[in-house]
């Protein structure tokens, strides 16, 4: 089975941690450090929200798809900077699968 794009990206992002900041965008982000990466995640989250509001009016989802990809990508860079891969996130979603959000909240609020 071909490797998933998330696995392929994880490998590239990890390799970029030791690359020269002049040689690549991801290497430049790792070089600038976590605060710069978090700034980008916040920026992309905001742009995604605006694109979703626009899509609601126009009925065209192309911009929100593009911005969500930017958000996911920068979130992967954040995880990579912290020494994580995408896998624990998929595992957490899998753990939650089938667990009603309402039931989970009720158990938490007890
Ligand atoms: N998926 C992506 C990806 N998505 C978005 N981006 C970059 O993320 C940046 C988004 O920032 P903005 O939209 O804010 O644009 P900007 O104004 O250029 O950014 P700033 O100057 O504000 O930081 C752009 O430069 C995009 O090109 C990405 N850059 C890289 N990748 C992947 O990461 C791999 C490694 O990339 P390099 O490190 O550049 O080789 C690539 O082969 C791709 O697979």
Automatic annotation (TrEMBL):
A Gene Ontology annotation in the biological process aspect, one of them, is:
L-histidine biosynthetic process
The protein's superkingdom reads Bacteria
Q: Which Enzyme Commission numbers does its entry carry?
A: 3.6.1.31
Q: Which InterPro entries match?
A: HisE, PRib-ATP_PPHydrolase-like
**Entry's Gene Ontology cellular component terms:** cytoplasm
The UniProt keywords, alphabetically, are: Amino-acid biosynthesis, ATP-binding, Cytoplasm, Histidine biosynthesis, Hydrolase, Nucleotide-binding
Which reaction(s) are listed as its catalytic activity? 1-(5-phospho-beta-D-ribosyl)-ATP + H2O = 1-(5-phospho-beta-D-ribosyl)-5'-AMP + diphosphate + H(+)
The answer on whether this UniProt entry bears the keyword Phosphoprotein reads: no
* GO MF annotation list: ATP binding; phosphoribosyl-ATP diphosphatase activity
Q: Which SUPFAM superfamilies match?
A: all-alpha NTP pyrophosphatases (SSF101386)
Family, per entry: Belongs to the PRA-PH family.
Write down what this protein is called: Phosphoribosyl-ATP pyrophosphatase
Record the organism.
Zhongshania antarctica
> Which gene name does the record give?
hisE
């Amino acid at each position: 089975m071909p490797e998933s794009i998330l696995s392929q990206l994880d490998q590239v992002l990890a390799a970029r941690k030791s690359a020269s900041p002049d040689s690549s965008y991801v290497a430049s982000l790792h070089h600038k450090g976590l605060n710069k990466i978090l700034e980008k995640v916040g920026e992309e989250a905001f742009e995604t929200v605006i694109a979703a509001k626009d899509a609601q009016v126009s009925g065209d989802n192309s911009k929100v798809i593009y911005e969500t990809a930017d958000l996911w990508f920068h979130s992967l860079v954040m995880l990579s900077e912290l020494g994580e891969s995408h896998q624990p996130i998929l595992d957490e979603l899998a753990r939650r699968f089938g667990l009603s959000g309402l039931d989970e909240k009720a158990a938490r609020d007890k």
